[in-house]
Amino acid sequence: xxxxxxxxxxxxxxxxxxxxxxxxxxxxxxxxxxxxxxxxxxxxxxxxxxxxxxxxxxxxxxxxxxxxxxxxxxxxxxxxxxxxxxxxxxxxxxxxxxxxxxxxxxxxxxxxxxxxxxxxxxxxxxxxxxxxxxxxxxxxxxxxxxxxxxxxxxxxxxxxxxxxxxxxxxxxxxxxx
Length: 177
Fold this sequence. Notes:
A 3-stranded antiparallel sheet has the order 1-3-2. The chain has 5 helices and 3 strands, in the order αααβααββ. Strand 2 (160-165) and strand 3 (168-173) form a beta hairpin. It folds into 2 domains: 3-101; 116-173, Winged helix-like DNA-binding domain superfamily/Winged helix DNA-binding domain (Arc Repressor Mutant, subunit A, Orthogonal Bundle), CATH 1.10.10. The protein has helices spanning 3-38, 58-111, 116-127, 133-140, 144-157; strands at residues 131-132, 160-165, 168-173.
């Protein structure tokens, strides 16, 4: 049972208790009125005691307090459920941001072992996984020959994979960052 349903249940229970206490008091008042009507409109009994003096309101007070507490708790559980959903959403966003930052840092550390030209090519491949070799040439500004040789080196080292695609190749990084 989630908190919202539990809160609704507490509120209903509080309302049932307050209704029960209210109707019990009405029933007792009606009973006293009946006794007074049978006693010639006097609240004094034959032994001299007043009916109103001996009434005990403790049960009514306790019932009212208990129902108020249940209703307040019910409202709390209903509203705290929204706060927990908000916290869960924020936690998920922070986790995703941390994972993305970690992936970026891992890739930067990986790139540290390469020269500037190689870093440019690897960054372009990471940004566009499955990039065509011709598109990669335009993005990096390298000549066709030097790019082809560099990609061949990467392929022999196991850094990238080439996939034939029409008259060109699609380039993928083997390691996912």
